[in-house]
Amino acid sequence: MGKVFRDQNVLDAFMTRVAFIFSKFDHIVVAFSGGKDSGLMLELLHLYVEEHRPTARVSVYHLDYEGNYQYTIDYVNRCMGKYPGFDYYHLCMPISASCGVSMFQSAWVPWNPLERDIWVREMPKGAINNDNHSFDFFEAGMSDYVFQTKFGQWLHEKNGATRTAVLVGIRAQESLNRYHAVTRGAGGFEGISYSTEIFPDIYNFYPIYDWSLEDVWIANHKFGFDYNRLYDLYYLAGVTLADMRVANPFHICGVDTLKLYRAIEPNTWGKLIGRVNGANFGALYGGTKAMGYKAVSLPPGHSWKSYTRFLLNTLPKQTGNIYRRKFAVSLDYWLKKGGALPAQTVKNLLDSGVRLERLGKPQSPRKYSGEFELVRFLEYPDDVRTKDFRLVPSYKRMCVTILKNDTSCKYMGFSQTKDELEKQRKAVQMWESIL
């Protein structure tokens, strides 16, 4: 517990934060994934409750993605209902989850009632599912992130809470995106950086955001906490601590470890490859150049621009058109309107011979961390040599996006479009008419 937060170590800092949350909120929700961080958070929260006996109601929910290691399933079963004073919700809903292994589908639907014959496992006993739920907000096929946000609102209203705090096991050490989520300092409860407003009187809190991996495992050992024994197998299999993840098996962030199912649980693996198109390919080539990882190399005779065209022509028509529309937006944005880049990045681009027009400082109300400059490219770069590769437009970045199966183009900074949302809405309507 050596890491210091002001005058406290991370354990004391966590307890201080939880004490503050209990003093301000009458309903606390734990988002429990079955992983090390949310598991630790659940145990620490229980320690606090046992010692201080706060009056706030505590709810725990687990969103089950159907396909998972048996060790994770066993751990979830041990935790759901573990502490009698808490309310538990085991959710097995047909929501839309990210799929990074298939060129034919950007998402898959766990517990899809139309695909019951190929489910990875049977519906858990006592789980809330498509047949027995009472969620007035639910739409079949809605995204998992939207579902969890609205579920938090549903819990808030169900419990008649004045304020609800949802505790999420995010640690800033894991990625820059997570670091940004807990340090941006905007929209938090009473200005607290490790919180985000979700709805009026409903906030997400990240009370272990400053913990390191070592802190997590030291705490488990020190207090003798139960944890997901899958991590022991990961360790024996040579997986680095930073790559040990428990999540949706087909998520783009976990493609490079999908192959471990074959070694750790071959029976589960056999069901996974029949569940989603491309799972076997993802297991074979996840984490390699074939799926946009590490140093993607350019085939002989190609520029990155021509390689982009080649890759687009190999895709199913519908998938290829998704990329073409978004790439066209990027071309139009950077060649006509212009965008903001860090001032040092602009200098590096100019020094490397990239042709661009400097348009001065950004005039948008957005708050920038550091000095930024507005630029317009005179020609769309084929490749750029900069440490800020993901910020700068290039045809190489387009190629990496395609190889990652990233149809949402998050790698290029895109969010879901109105057209995609409308297609999702129509798909939901069609599905509901069938069920």
Q: The biggest beta sheet, please?
A: 7 strands, mixed
Average predicted local confidence, pLDDT? 82
Proportion in β-strands: 5-15%
Strand order of the largest sheet: 8-5-4-3-9-11-10
Tell me the CATH architecture of the largest domain.
3-Layer(aba) Sandwich
Order of helices and strands: EEHEHEHEEEEHEHEEHHHHHHHEHEEHH
DSSP summary, beta strand count = 14
Low-confidence stretches: 1-5, 278-294
CATH class type of the largest domain: Alpha Beta
How large is the count of helical segments?
Answer: 15
Helical fraction: 25-40%
Amino-to-carboxy terminus distance: 52 Å
- CATH topology of the largest domain: the name is Rossmann fold
The helix-and-strand class reads alpha/beta
What is the C-alpha radius of gyration, as a whole number of Å? Answer: 23 Å
Shape: globular
CATH superfamily of the largest domain: HUPs
Tell me the count of domains: 2
